[in-house]
Design goal:
The complex is a heterodimer of chains A (292) and B (422). Chain A is mainly alpha-helical and 292 residues long. Chain A contains 12 helices and 2 strands; from the N terminus they run αββααααααααααα. In chain A, α3 packs antiparallel against α9 and α7 packs across α9. Classes of the chains: A mainly alpha (292), B alpha/beta (422). The A-B interface holds A 38-39, 41-42, 124-127, 141, 143, 145-148, 151, 231-237, 248, 251-255 and B 74, 77-78, 81-82, 103, 106-108, 189-192, 240-246, 250, 253-254, 257, 259, 377-378, 380-381, 384, 388, 391-392, 395-396, 418-419, 421.
Chain lengths: 292, 422
């Protein structure tokens, strides 16, 4: 087939991608060179690279970057571990397995705002169930949502509860693609359960693990609704994420130029992370190929 | 006898005539009914429902429709802004919080009301309710309901409320020592707008100011003393550490459970506390915030009012709606049925209302002590800086003086970069 025909056939898809991804991105890039805020009467005024300088010097941007990365790293790793465990469990031929699978999906099916409200009550000091239990045991109340060193972990806990089922579902799908005769052969050779997990399950599950990490990382780095409802970014700004900061600038401060710059800044960080993950994947699969 | 062909011609003419006539009439009829759409937070949409149907009955040429917005103040603003950003606004009137007005006006979304309401528009407003409606020399909002910060106290635990910060601490300590309440005083300490309202009252009560002539005064000795006092309340266990994540509902919950002697909240809390089945029914009174000797007992003003949107295509009809809903009769009904605080002097002095609601006089006094948050298009940023820094100092170890010096620098920088216009 001639080359131009290939392009012709790809044109609709390319146009769609351009319209959905490239066009808004270009608009944001343009917006980040403008002062468009309540002070300019919402009219764009070109100011060159000033917004980017402001971003570079904005301690709050770097603090929020660190906090977003910290939150993402902690919640995604926890979710991968727990998700794998749940997937392995649900893969076993247990009685009532389909019922268990359905139940384990429930947290994922809840809207984030609703579940965040629930967790706000669970963490309530002093009337929430956890603190009531601590009081019955004669222990002091735990300041889940009012201690800057603790609150981000509470947010990680709520996020893990909500999205572990998603990871488990992806990994369960992966587990079902592994032929059972591999395990039978390994068992015949005298392999222990641990050995077959390490030598068969994990290597064959790697693509699924990576996809789950990528999906979850992209979502966690953009975390907004959970934080907004659970803490509003506090205490002491310790749970503010990049998305929350960008939202504040756009919707509360009506500073659209800087909000666009913030979004592009976090987009660059996301790109860097996903690019690294993709490189690691390629590198590790090449390594595996050589080993074989 | 008329030939069939002519008959057909006549019939055709008749049909055309009747058709165009009815079309014309229908057009006239629809032209005369002007749709007016109002966005309100859910509680106010519920409270005004009866007034709205009364308006529609008495004004057949206007079809008033209320959109029931979200419950939370800032969520309503988000909804309004999303719609305004799209250019063509789907609303004619907006029920606005006092702190949004300069921002919305500067963004060019509002229509000045001076020409519509005339020079005497504010004449009937009670002292305190007249604040925060004008900005930059023009009137942008007409207040429907007044709201102000109050200090609630337990009449079963003490004879009289404290009037100074030291008295509040002393009474709290005594009651806590005697084991009558686990906590002394609860207030809104979460990182959000409510904390700015709490701080503003104390700033004034300690003799300080937020801004004077657009210059921040947040590292003044009075400002440091005010935030230092809040920090000490938490450190000394008079206020629970959980205050760092408490908004209005959380403080009301703790106070209503009988676990605190004092609470800072808005007037709505009184109705909640006196509901049948409430453990504190008849055991609560309110007054204004404590202050140092010689300084004012300040109440942060938090009124709600209607603004006319610049993009509205039914401005005259919308103004008629505004006049009707903010009239003395409407405010009276809102107070009788729903307990909302009026803004008109004539309503405060209405003998029937005073008989039904004896606390009205106290509310009027508190309203007269109202202080306004800075009127600035960048108020949202100023407040964000303030509540973030104060929340940091009450949930951490940083001394209040360090926090306030940092806050002063950040606020100065913000106002300088916004062109000093403020």
């Amino acid at each position: 087939m001639r080359r131009w025909r290939l392009w012709l056939l790809m044109a609709p898809a390319l146009a769609l991608l351009l319209a959905i991804f490239a066009a808004p991105l270009m608009h944001y890039l343009w917006l980040s060179t403008q002062a468009q805020s309540v002070l300019t009467g919402l009219k764009p005024v070109p100011i060159g690279a000033q917004q980017w300088l402001r971003l570079w010097n904005d301690g709050r941007f770097w603090q929020d970057t660190w906090q977003t990365l910290r939150f993402s790293a902690a919640s995604v790793s926890l979710e991968m571990l727990l998700g794998l465990a749940v997937a392995l469990l649900l893969h076993q031929p247990l009685c009532g397995r389909s019922l268990l699978r359905t139940i384990s999906l429930l947290p994922w099916a809840l809207p984030t705002t609703v579940m965040a409200l629930g967790w706000r009550w669970i963490f309530n000091d002093p009337y929430g169930p956890i603190n009531q239990l601590l009081a019955v045991l004669g222990l002091g109340a735990m300041p889940f949502l009012s201690n800057p060193n603790v609150t981000w972990l509470a947010a990680v806990g709520a996020d893990t509860w909500k999205t572990t089922p998603f990871v488990a579902l992806l990994l369960l799908a992966g587990l079902q693609t592994i032929p059972s005769d591999l395990y039978e052969a390994a068992a015949l050779e005298g392999a222990t359960a641990w050995q077959s997990l390490r030598r068969i399950t994990l290597p064959l599950l790697t693509p699924y693990l990576l996809i789950a990490v990528l999906f979850r990382l992209a979502q966690a780095l953009g975390v907004f609704d959970l934080i907004q409802v659970l803490t509003g970014g506090g205490p002491a700004g310790s749970t503010e994420s990049l998305a929350l900061y960008a939202y504040l600038n756009a919707m509360r401060f009506l500073d659209f130029g800087y909000s666009a710059t913030l979004l592009l800044g976090s987009f660059a960080i996301l790109l860097l992370l996903c690019g690294t993950a993709a490189l690691v994947w390629r590198w590790s699969s090449r390594l595996q190929g050589e080993l074989r | 006898m008329i030939p069939p062909r002519a008959l057909r011609r006549w019939a055709l003419l008749l049909v055309a005539l009747v058709g165009s006539l009815s079309l014309g009439l229908w057009g006239l009829a629809t032209e005369r009914v002007e749709p007016v759409s109002v966005l309100m937070p859910a509680p106010f949409a519920d409270a005004t429902a009866e007034l709205v149907s009364a308006f529609n009955r008495s004004h057949p040429r206007i079809a008033l429709r209320v959109t029931r917005g979200p419950l939370e103040t800032e969520a309503v603003s988000d909804l309004a802004i999303s719609s305004l950003l799209l250019g063509e606004s789907s609303y004619d009137l907006l029920l606005m919080d006092v702190s949004w007005t300069p921002k919305y006006a500067a963004a060019g979304w509002l229509e000045p009301l001076d020409a519509w309401l005339g020079p005497d528009a504010l004449a009937d407003l009670a002292p305190g309710a007249d604040l925060g409606n004008a900005f930059g020399g023009q009137l942008w909002r007409f207040p429907l309901l007044a709201d102000m910060g109050l200090l609630y106290w337990r009449t079963d635990l003490m004879e009289a409320p404290p009037r100074t910060p030291a008295e509040l601490v002393a009474i709290s300590r005594r009651l806590q020592r005697e084991g009558r309440v686990p906590w002394g005083y609860v207030w809104q300490g979460k990182q959000y707008e409510g904390l700015s309202c709490v701080v503003l009252e104390l700033l004034r009560g300690f003799g300080g100011h937020w801004l004077v002539d657009n210059e921040p005064q947040l590292d003044s000795p009075a400002a440091i003393a005010a935030t230092g006092w809040l920090q000490d309340l938490v450190r000394q266990g008079i206020t629970p550490a959980a205050v760092g994540n408490m908004g209005e509902p959380e403080t009301l919950q703790l106070f209503q459970a009988g676990d605190a002697a004092f609470m800072r909240n808005w007037p709505y809390a009184m109705a909640e506390l006196n509901k049948p089945g409430s453990p504190l029914r008849g055991k609560v009174a309110f007054t204004t915030m404590v202050s140092e000797e010689g300084e004012p007992h300040a109440a942060t003003q938090g009124s709600w009012g209607f603004s006319l949107l610049a993009g509205s295509t039914h401005k005259a009809a919308a103004v008629e709606v505004l006049r009707f809903l903010t009239s003395a009769d409407a405010q009276k009904q809102l107070n009788l049925r729903w307990g909302y605080t009026p803004t008109r002097l004539s309503v405060f002095e209405d003998p029937e209302l005073l008989a039904a609601n004896p606390a009205l006089g106290d509310l009027q006094q508190a309203l007269a002590a109202a202080v306004l948050r800075p009127l600035s298009p960048v108020y949202a940023q100023l407040s964000d800086l303030l509540y973030r820094e104060v929340n940091t100092s009450i949930t951490g170890d940083q001394p209040a003086s360090t926090a306030m010096r940092q806050l002063q620098l950040n606020s100065e920088r913000l106002l300088r970069s916004s062109g000093g216009e403020g």
